[in-house]
Write a structure and sequence with these properties.
homodimer; about 220 residues; two-stranded antiparallel sheet; DNA-binding
Chain lengths: ~220, ~220
DNA sequence: TAGATTGTTAATCGATTAACAATC
DNA sequence: TAGATTGTTAATCGATTAACAATC
């Protein structure tokens, strides 16, 4: 089986494509062209065609791509075609927000357990889940074969929590703590950082302010 | 005054640099080398040097860069040197999480007003703020000269909220709704999307699973 | 058929990395 | 002085864009 990697910028655009495609399904649209997708997202048609071609899917000239096929293929490429059970550690505000956020099922992520060190939070209901103590992590992960964990603890504790999780068999960590985590081989870690995103907005603001002063 | 744009990938790394630099300040470190920064973040020294050089700051061979100077310069480049008052619209779980999140001051963002359409939420306390009704948006924005808004409403309402905000004089929108917003000229919009980040983790997982099956 | 859209190869653009002289 | 680190120019790499033939 040949392996070739889809460029990361392309992967990052896939969720946007899926969003438009899901809207198309709801409208009953059967085929969609790269041109239409591009229009909807403010991208260039060539880029969308290139991105789609990287998945190997084929379209029909003049017609476009089967919406259903595209969705299935993108799901498969991203591994969102089968639900993954995940746990979340750290039920502060962000943790609770993520636990209650309904949108994750759309991408095959199913949060089934919440954990915290704080004795006062144990037993609290968040969404339809009950917060458990972190001392139960090991048995919960092993009993339920959990592979994915979401970390929303303070930065100071993130690495030690991650180390524990990896020793219990967790293979993927979605890290919301503002610090880089060191991964064991074979463990995938991805950090989501609000500051990074805000930095981009900040330079956009600066630029538009500067632009408004020169003419 | 000459204008040259700092590459976006570079801008995205600046918050990480700042994080390490702030740690250095707390330890009392006065100078830090690009090599040390790179080591800390798992980047290559050349890349860090290139990034820093794009700000125009100068270092001392063998010694490195003044931690204080670097922090000040990065803050200035990002426009994080003077506090910006902002409002947040949509006090669902994510909105509340962001409103309570204490880390924004570090990047000059100060959330001073919370708004929602839901009558049941008006008057609720979130952090040390009280939720106001969206009918008060216009006067609040104009009276207080607010330029920045954070949108955490459902996707279906995001564009109309954004349109209102822009008509009231908002110049920058940080959009957490899963949809693209159309901006008026002169308005900066940045979307933060959890799905994008999770897509990257997903392909990492897929790859490490595939790797574990080939030897 | 005519024309819109796909798919592919080549050209361009921009970021990363390498190489190395300058310097404290 | 010797050596680590900076700063800069050039080479490499990879993504975006352009061009165009194939096709329904």
């Amino acid at each position: 089986m040949e392996r070739y990697d889809i460029p990361l910028p392309t992967v990052k655009r896939f969720p946007s494509y899926l969003r438009i495609l899901n809207q198309a399904v709801e409208k009953g649209t059967e085929f969609i062209s790269a041109t239409a997708l591009a229009e909807e997202l403010g991208l260039k048609p060539i880029q969308v065609r290139k991105d789609i071609s990287s998945t190997g899917i084929e379209g029909k000239p003049k017609v476009g791509f089967s919406v259903k096929d595209l969705i299935n293929t993108l799901h498969k490429v991203l591994g969102w075609d089968n639900a993954n059970n995940a746990i979340l550690i750290g039920t502060g505000n962000l943790g609770k927000a993520l636990a209650c956020y309904g949108g994750f099922e759309a991408y095959g992520l199913n949060i089934v357990g919440l954990f915290d060190v704080d004795e006062n939070k144990i037993g609290d209901n968040v969404g339809n889940l009950t917060v458990k103590h972190t001392s139960e992590l090991k048995s919960y992960i092993m009993d339920n074969g959990i592979m994915i964990a979401v970390i929303t603890v303070p930065a100071a504790h993130a690495q030690s929590v991650a180390n524990d999780l990896m020793s219990y068999g967790i293979k993927a960590i979605w890290n919301f703590a503002p610090c880089e985590l060191k991964a064991e081989p074979g463990v995938a870690i991805q950090r989501t950082d609000l500051a990074t995103s805000f930095a981009v907005l900040s330079v956009k603001i600066k630029k538009s302010v500067e632009d408004s002063f020169k003419f």
